[in-house]
Amino acid sequence: MELFGEGKTACFAVEQGCETGIFEIGQKVAVDMERVSGLRPDIVCGLDKLHQREPEALVLFATVGKSEVLEQLEQQGVVNLSEVKGKNEVFGYYLFEDMEAVTALEATDFKGLSRQLLLICGSDKRGTIYGMFHLSELMGVSPLIYWGDAAPVQKECMSVGKEIEMVSKEPSVKYRGFFINDEWPCFGNWTTTHFGGF
Question: SS3 for 62?
């Protein structure tokens, strides 16, 4: 599946009624793709809007328990979410290069779309978001792009195959984050220069 190349990109999509913030994070990942490819993908909210665009490749972001599509895919045996469901902040990547099984689902808006699909789903909201940002990392965008001025290397094209399929591990700690030490001159000068102070 081609994520970007030859002047076009995959389309990003979330379902209507998805977890709050998922669409906004999708926009951030779209900007990351633009940093690498020079092209910003469309991101649609509501799968019914896909028929207006007819993308050749689709990346769907979804959360277990908040996604009608995930429920149907699992019920029909198209995808096995047993390693994702019930976990804390876990995400899975599932690639469908043949959409026949997916488009056969009568109740979904995939019907009529003969395209490739990368499904990124989380066990919960944060799991979905970590999965979305993992796509940015796969494109070569560092999580420290802002803090460390770590500009990504630009690419003309990027494709993914079945090797992308995976399920992440649960985090080893309950709360993730990083500590900001209010030291001068490094952090103090930086915040003063950029924001006028702490």
Answer: strand
- pLDDT tens readout for residues 163-185: 999 999 999 998 888 777 778 88
Residue 11 structure tokens: 């389309």
Structure tokens at 68: 């009608």
Sites in the chain below the pLDDT cut of 50: 107
**What 8-state DSSP symbol labels residue 164?**
G
Nearest Cα to Cα of residue 9 among 52, 45, 59, 62: 59
Asked whether 54 and 7 are in contact (CB, 8 A), the reply is: no
Q: CB atoms < 10 A from the CB of 66, how many?
A: 19
Q: How many Å apart are CA 169 and CA 84, to the nearest integer?
A: 9
Which pLDDT score is estimated for 114?
Answer: 54
Cα four-point dihedral sign 14, 158, 111, 134:
negative
Six token digits for residue 119: 């499904």
- 149: tokens are 């001025």
Report the relative pairing of strands 11-14 and 57-63 from DSSP bridges: parallel
Q: Which helix (H) or strand (E) holds 129?
A: helix 125-138
Angle at 119 between CA 118 and CA 120, to 5 degrees: 115
HSE of 52 in the Cβ direction (CA atoms, 13 Å)?
9
The span from the CA of 49 to the CA of 154, in Å, is 30
